[in-house]
Amino acid sequence: MLTKRIIPCLDIKNGRTVKGINFLNLRDAGDPVELARKYADQGADELVFLDISATQEERETIYDLVRKVGREVNIPFTVGGGIASADKVAHILRNGADKVSVNSAVVRRPELAGEIAREFGSQCLVVAVDARLVDDTWIVHTHGGTRPTEIELYDWVKKMEDAGAGEILFTSMNHDGTKNGFACDALARMSDLLHIPVIASGGAGSMEHFKDVFTNGKADAGLAASIFHFQEIGIPELKEYLYKEEIPVRI
Amino acid sequence: MIVIIDYDAGNTCSVTNALDRLNADYVLSDDARQIQGANKVIFPGVGHAGAAMEALRRKDLVSVIQGLTQPVLGICVGMQLYARESAEGNTSCLGILDTKVTKFDESMKEKVPHMGWNTVHQEVDDILFEQLDKSDYYYFVHSYYMPLSEHSTGTCSYQLPFSAAVRKDNFWGIQFHAEKSGIVGAKLLSNFLEKA
Fold first, then answer.
1. What are chain B's domains?
2. Per-residue confidence band for B8, with pLDDT thresholds at 50, 70 and 90
3. Using CA atoms in the order B66, B68, B71, B77, what is the torsion angle rounded to 10 degrees?
4. Active site residues per annotation of B
């Protein structure tokens, strides 16, 4: 049976992990490769690296990181952050990543999604969407969720599916950082609307939240950062819990 | 020497990384004589079956692959190209297996692509799966599948049971990405390298 995926997300700046990672037994908490290997060994199903570098110069370090992760990690991984051209996609995939995620760049120029899908295949294109519920309407935001657009969430994800996205990574800005649970209503509606997998992000605070997102939220994968980095929830115990709750997971 | 067929059909990087982790010696090649002279051949494929067959024809590799007698491992689209034909791009394929690769049904509740970790039921004992457990998971990403046949050695269920692994004579094929399937996938690849 196809299992639900658990995906730790690592924020990368200038080739290093950021956001105080408090992980036991790490020689270097800032080394994304070591952290990635640790998560893979613990049973993470995929990894996402999000490059939040501010300058072009810092961003160039991502290729080196992708090469190292590709050499050392034997599970699929996605790279996102600042990807705005098919050339950069080619470079990241050729260095060993399995997928790229694009966000603001496809809002700016939606044709980019189709260009990437046609050239590299839908299987490697994750369209990440940050949205906020404003007066009962989910509005897509760009630039790390800081800038509102006039685009409605469900129209947008459908358009991206039609353009060739292989997966949607949806972050609810209303839930992100709250640790009060995922945006299950919006996720379930999205999952019913789309025929491609949906990755849920934003709001994970407990193991029950993952159960909730895979049942009520109908999500195919759950992504989180700080709860894994600070070891509030360990991946082995999370999977053990989900398994007992009859959610299909890889153990 | 292991030869990985290099024919511009997707990314060979994850396969070379996996072989590096196994300390295997290999070369990437699209040269007919080098491929024919290999001890073992890995035939990867990511992307589009129609485009992949185009690339093989352009490089004059169709009859080269059909004529190989050493162990060959087709991975994902590589395995699918063993078929007679594929619905992806409505292309004729290598015809090593008399079957047709078909698209998953997009109107069903199970989404397309089939993406993520799934189990493989071993239909017969095959060296690829030696010391691997029936409860082990493998990483799949595909929208097209090869139906079950007498050559299916492993089956996976998604929408319907389909061929997750096949073997005919010296041709092995796996639909999943062993190179991305953690330690289980690494074991399977090392089984091919050491025992096939």
1. 2-195 (3.40.50.880)
2. confident
3. -30
4. 76, 177, 179
Alpha helices, H only, B6-122: 13-21, 32-36, 49-58, 62-66, 77-80
pLDDT band, residue B127 (cuts 50/70/90): very high
Strand-pairing partners, residue B43, are B74
Report how far residue B121's alpha carbon sits from residue A218's, in angstroms, rounded to the nearest whole number. 26
Is A11 a known active-site residue? yes
Which has the closest alpha carbon to A16: A65, A57, A82, A54? Answer: A65
- All structural domains of chain A, each given as residue ranges with its CATH number in brackets, are 5-244 (3.20.20.70)
Q: Does the interface predicted TM-score (ipTM) exceed 0.85?
A: yes
Which of B12, B13, B157, B176 has the most A C-beta neighbours within 10 Å, making it the best mutation to test the interface with A?
A: B13
To the nearest whole angstrom, how far is the Cα of A68 from the nearest Cα of chain B?
10
Residues B114-143 have a mean pLDDT of 94
Dist. CA A19–CA A12, nearest whole Å: 9
Measured between CA atoms, the residue of chain A closest to residue B104 is: A195
